[in-house]
Amino acid sequence: MMLPQLQYKDKTIVYMADLLPSVGHLPLPYVMAYDMFPLQTLKEKKEFLEEAATNQYILYLEHDPINECCTLQHTEKGVRLKDTFTLEEIG
To answer: Which among 32, 1, 61 is positioned nearest to 81, based on CA atoms?
Structure first.
């Protein structure tokens, strides 16, 4: 799966496609039912979420009906949701 990264105002915006269609899919075990290689996806998802939290990526969630974008943070329980906002609010 390709996750295009865009540079905008010194920020990195990542189009999440089906790896993370909504904030409800943040927990690691949540992968798409039609994924042909779910164990590989879990490994890659974990690595990506760590990278996204460390580098403060803005994740664009095309399929989320409520949250257009989000950022992540490292917590005692792993990577979790930090903030949600719209593309228009990026400044």
So the answer is: 61
- Split at pLDDT 50, 70, 90, the class of 37 is very high
Amino acid identity for residue 54 in this structure: T
What count of Cα atoms within 13 Å lies in the side-chain half-sphere of residue 73?
Answer: 6
User: 1-35, pLDDT tens digit by residue?
Assistant: 789 999 999 999 999 999 999 999 999 889 888 99
DSSP 59-73: EE-TT-SS-SEEEEE
Query: What's the rounded Cα separation, in Å, for the pair 45 and 10?
Result: 24
